[in-house]
Amino acid sequence: MRIDIVSLFPEFVEQCAGFGVTGRARERGLLDLHGWNPRDWAEGNYRKVDDRTFGGGPGMVMLVEPLRRCLAALRQADPLPPRVVYLSPQGRPLDQARVRELAALPRLALLCGRYEGVDERLVQAEVDEEISIGDYVLSGGELAAAVVVDAVARLQEGALNDAGSASQDSFEDGLLDCPHYSHPVEHAYGTVPEVLRSGNHAAIARWRRQQALGRTWQRRPDLLAGRVLSKADQALLDEWRREQGR
Ligand SMILES: NC(=O)c1ccc(NCc2cccc(O)c2)nc1
Fold first, then answer.
1. For a FRET experiment, which of 5, 88, 146, 198 has its CA 20 to 30 Å from that of 237?
2. Which ipTM did the prediction report?
3. Is 7 in the pocket of ligand 1 (CB under 6 A)?
4. In degrees rounded to 5, what are phi and psi of residue 26?
């Protein structure tokens, strides 16, 4: 997968993706990152990329023309047409289902705005979709872009050593993940649940599913709203709630 980052600080996003799973995905050629800086396509001595917003009020807007030229160059750099994603608080909230869809694309271009954002004409002419990583405002879209890069990189085939682990993630089937334990078995903070050391894989799978259902019900009831659980899942959740005295 190729990802092009359009940003006044492209190296920031590239560095975020230089560690761990994402760094390894790049070394393995599973992910190809390219940074593009609109300032390189801005005119004049000051290479102006932003200006005041029409209509008055505070804040600056990124200018349409340097971005248009930058995107034209990016499109020419590879025959694969990119899906152009603009990171903004006005975008569609990112979730794991959308991450999986993005991870399946051959090429993404992530547009990172600074200041109050980008001239709307550029958005309308060039952007395929706006995505928000949450309902809060950052100083720039770069951290949001780094989140998208990380989330899609780890889903690239071969990125995770234990391929199964992506499928065991939280949200994989719309549920939160079960709790995890490792050594030592006995600790001042508690003991590892017996079932996990039983070697009974059916019982372990049942316990994990029940924990995922219970935690989701308890912490994120919104994820269960409007969802019809299977009879088996409903029975597991009911039992979990009884055991919790809930
Ligand atoms: N929640 C997010 O994904 C997110 C994304 C970007 C951002 N800042 C740059 C920006 C970009 C566009 C408009 C704008 O008002 C601010 N802040 C938060």
1. 198
2. 0.99
3. no
4. -70, -40
